[in-house]
Specification:
CATH architecture: Alpha-Beta Complex
Structural class: alpha/beta
Largest sheet: 7 strands, mixed
Helix content: 25-40%
CATH topology: Spore Coat Polysaccharide Biosynthesis Protein SpsA, Chain A
Number of strands: 7
CATH class: Alpha Beta
Strand content: 15-25%
Distance between the termini: 45 Å
Length: 202
């Protein structure tokens, strides 16, 4: 049975920016590269979207591609983005952090892959927290009640909220740009992330 899938980037103000780099310019570069990554993946298998709380609406409009839907949510939480995706008729949704501009596209597919067998899948961030979260829709009640934050809740905390540890599939993780050490993890050999690359001086 075919599934109608949504992959959304969750925009939020970055927790950190490199020294000498304007915070707003940094947020825009990360958002632009994250949205461009998803736009390049858009096909019949998954629709791409931007999930955004009111404070980041202007940023979303500045980086969105034509006809790319915006999922309006009250606060930057992946579970709320999943509710919005379900209201649009999607059967599955993956929500990604917006500060992983060099994320390999294949890891997004791996985040969606377990959903036919398990209701929830999570990709950890190398420095803690989560890179992304995916769920079959409607999202399970325990996930909505836990209301996880990609910045605060890692895989262990998510599994602790689940009815069983097997309810959450772990998928390969990646780094997020949230501190000085994370810049060293950027893979200059990967294509994409032009805006972030340009802001960092190439």
């Amino acid at each position: 049975m075919s599934r109608k899938r949504c992959v959304a980037v969750l925009l939020r103000e970055p927790a950190w920016s490199p020294p000498g780099v304007d915070r707003d310019a940094w947020a825009h570069a990360l958002a632009e590269d994250s949205v461009d990554l998803l736009a390049a993946l858009a096909d019949a298998e998954a629709e791409v979207a931007i999930a955004v709380a009111p404070g980041e609406a202007a940023l979303a409009e500045s980086v969105r591609w034509p006809a790319m839907p915006i999922l309006a949510i009250e606060k930057p939480r992946p579970a709320l983005a999943m509710v919005a995706a379900h209201e649009r008729g999607f059967d599955q949704a993956a929500v990604l952090a917006s500060d992983a501009p060099d994320l390999p596209a294949m890891l997004i597919g791996k985040l969606l892959q377990p959903l036919d067998r398990r209701g929830v899948a999570a990709a950890p961030a190398d420095s803690g927290g989560l890179l992304g979260l995916a769920a079959a829709l409607p999202a399970p009640g325990w996930l909505l009640r836990a209301d996880p934050d990609l910045d605060a809740d890692g895989l262990a905390e998510l599994r602790a909220a689940a009815p069983s540890t097997g309810a959450v599939a772990a998928t390969p993780g990646w780094h997020r740009l949230r501190d000085p050490e994370s810049l060293a993890r950027l893979d200059v050999n990967l294509e994409g992330w032009e805006a972030t690359r340009a802001l960092l001086g190439g």
